[in-house]
Write a structure and sequence with these properties.
With about 140 residues, the protein is α/β, with parallel strands linked by helices. About 55% of the residues lie in helices and about 15% in strands. It has a domain of about 100 residues: Rossmann fold, CATH 3.40.50. The chain is built from seven helices and six strands, in the order E-H-H-E-H-H-E-H-H-E-E-E-H.
């Protein structure tokens, strides 16, 4: 695929899953296929879920953070990004944090956003397409 690719938190979490093996395989192939982008927000959401749901300790989570740093270009956001996220939220009816991920991906020049939680094949601002990599059309199941 051409263009820059942004990865949502849920894809990262599936890459560590021991129970969702098919999704884990798909997620890992996306992550290690090329150096994709994530944001500090994705890292923070991942940390929170690894503590709460996966019950990892601080050292294990630190290892995850360092692994993410090795495998992704990490993007930050600004007030301008947050304003753009508010506009995306209103226009496309996403939750604010999903809108912030979309806005950050747009500002980073991404043409694809992989996410399980947003509308598959939706095009945002005529610039970025949301793709659920776990749909039958994408994984051949």
């Amino acid at each position: 695929m051409k263009g820059r690719i942004f990865i949502d938190t849920n894809i990262i979490l599936y890459s560590y899953s021991k129970t969702e093996l098919e999704k884990s395989e798909v997620a890992n192939s996306l992550i290690f296929e090329t150096k994709n982008l994530i944001s500090n927000q994705v890292i923070n959401e991942t940390i929170n879920i690894l503590y709460k749901k996966y019950n990892l300790n601080s050292q294990q989570i630190e290892d995850v953070i360092l692994e993410l740093d090795d495998n992704f270009e990490i993007c930050n956001f600004t007030i301008k990004t947050q304003v753009k996220a508010l506009r995306i939220k209103e226009k496309y009816k996403y939750q604010y944090y999903d809108s912030l991920i979309i806005a950050t991906a747009l500002e980073s020049g991404c043409s694809i956003l992989y996410s399980e939680d947003m509308q598959h094949n939706q095009i945002i601002e005529n610039k970025i397409t949301i793709i659920n990599p776990f749909t039958k059309e994408n994984n051949g199941n």
